[in-house]
């Protein structure tokens, strides 16, 4: 959620970090040493370019896909990337583009798991994260520089939750559209596109600090969501399979 991506310096030091940018898809990829090479990079870049082209071509044919803030029913001819995004968005009650960053984070993560043979992968795409591995992880919550929880609060993910997606939406920071004023709405799900869409939906519901509990409850009601945390000002609501930890 930080425009400068300064949070990337906080990624696990035991993993090597690599950057890959294809259009708006801006990935930070964390892998064990020696996994990343020119062949892996080219294969992943080509895969992302292919999926982005399919998506862009579909948007040209169906502009409503990019414009809608409500779920859409797609024709059977829609490419898999569009179908996947639309399904995740429909489950959360938002428009398909709410799932785009999460979709590409998980696409990259699964490609790396298959092609590299490694088991530890973290892919971050604009604050939306796909994680796989055998170790628990602690993820800090960024809710804006002025928010009292930023830099002080994180969530611990047990190893048995992995692989999973951890996605955050906000109505006060970042460039993404939101109907609400949440400083941060974090959602964890086994499907990263779903986590992205549900985070958007939860953030949309926060019109003031009194709405954090209702927004968190809504996120938890989405089938496939395992945990959520919503922050607005000095108010926080959290639920599900996470442990809040002091950083």
Care to describe what's here?
It is built from 6 helices and 11 strands. With 247 residues, it is α+β, with helices and mostly antiparallel strands. The chain has a single domain, classed as T-fold (Roll). The longest helix is centred in the first third of the chain and has 24 residues. The mean pLDDT is 93.
Protein traits:
three-stranded antiparallel beta sheet, eight-stranded antiparallel beta sheet, alpha+beta, T-fold
N- and C-termini, Cα separation: 18 Å
Number of helices: 6
Radius of gyration: 17 Å
Please give the order of strands in the largest beta sheet. 1-2-3-4-7-8-9-10
- In terms of structural class, how would the helical and strand content be classed? alpha+beta
The CATH fourth-level homologous superfamily: ApbE-like domains
- CATH class wording: Alpha Beta
SSE topology sketch:
Layout: E1 16-22, E2 25-31, H1 38-61, H2 64-67, H3 80-92, H4 100-116, E3 121-125, E4 128-132, E5 137-140, E6 153-157, E7 164-169, E8 184-189, H5 192-204, H6 212-221, E9 225-232, E10 235-240, E11 243-246
Antiparallel strand pairs: 1-2, 2-3, 3-4, 4-7, 5-6, 6-11, 7-8, 8-9, 9-10
């Amino acid at each position: 959620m930080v425009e400068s991506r300064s949070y990337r310096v906080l990624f696990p030091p035991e993993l090597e970090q690599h950057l890959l940018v294809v259009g708006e898809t801006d990935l930070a990829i964390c892998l064990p040493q020696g996994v990343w090479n020119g062949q892996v990079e080219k294969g992943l870049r080509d895969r992302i370019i292919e999926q982005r082209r399919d998506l862009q071509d579909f948007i040209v044919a169906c502009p409503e896909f990019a414009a809608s803030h409500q779920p859409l029913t797609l024709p059977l001819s829609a490419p898999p990337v569009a179908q996947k995004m639309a399904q995740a968005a429909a489950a959360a009650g938002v428009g398909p583009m709410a799932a785009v960053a999460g979709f590409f984070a998980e696409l990259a993560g699964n490609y790396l798991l298959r092609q590299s043979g490694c088991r530890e992968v973290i892919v971050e795409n604009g604050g939306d994260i796909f994680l796989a591995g055998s170790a628990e992880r602690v993820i800090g919550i960024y809710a804006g520089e002025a928010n009292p929880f930023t830099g002080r609060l994180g969530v611990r993910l047990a190893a048995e939750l992995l692989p999973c997606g951890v996605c955050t939406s906000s109505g006060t920071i970042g460039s993404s559209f939101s109907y609400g004023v949440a400083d941060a709405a974090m959602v964890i799900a086994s499907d990263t596109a779903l986590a992205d869409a549900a985070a958007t939906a939860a953030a949309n519901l926060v019109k003031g600090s009194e709405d954090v509990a209702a927004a968190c409850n809504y996120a938890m009601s989405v089938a496939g969501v395992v945990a959520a945390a919503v922050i607005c000002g000095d108010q926080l609501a959290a639920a599900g399979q996470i442990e809040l930890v002091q950083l």
